[in-house]
Amino acid sequence: MREGPLFPATEPGSREGTLVLRLDGPWTLGNAPPVRAHLQALRPPVLIVEMSGVPYIDSAAVGDLMQAYVSATNAGRIFLLAGVTNHVMALFYLIKVHNILPMYPSVTAAEKAAARRKRR
């Protein structure tokens, strides 16, 4: 299942200044524009991209994530991934972005990590 709709939805996190972008569906070049637009438009102090519903991503999606991470980091914002599936994680390890993109098993764990980063 590499093609199909990708549904982005935002919701407030449990901590002030945190926004969660939940994704559901495969993330490919063909359906990336709405997610790319969300990533470019959202500028909360903390953005957590929840990916437990994403079974597959391609290089376009990786590029969107890297661009969003760099943009947020350069602006002093926190950008985190949560719930990355095993298949997507294998790709991240293969192309070595697992060392760059901060990833956590859940939104709760990502929120706790963001709170620790904010205290620094």
Write a structural description:
This protein is an alpha/beta fold and 120 residues long. The chain has four helices and five strands; from the N terminus they run ββαβαβαβα. It has one domain (18-119): Transcription Regulator spoIIAA (2-Layer Sandwich), CATH 3.30.750.24. The radius of gyration is 13 Å and the shape is globular. The termini are far apart. 30% of the residues are buried.
List the helices and strands and how they pair.
Blueprint: E1 7-12, E2 18-24, H1 32-41, E3 46-53, H2 59-74, E4 78-82, H3 86-94, E5 103-104, H4 107-119
Parallel strand pairs: 2-3, 3-4, 4-5
Antiparallel strand pairs: 1-2
Helix pairs in contact: 1-2
Average pLDDT figure: 93
List low-pLDDT spans: none
Question: Please, how many helices?
Answer: 4
Instruction: Compute the number of structural domains.
Output: 1
Task: Kindly summarize this structure in a few lines.
With 120 residues, the protein is of the alpha/beta class. The protein is built from four helices and five strands.
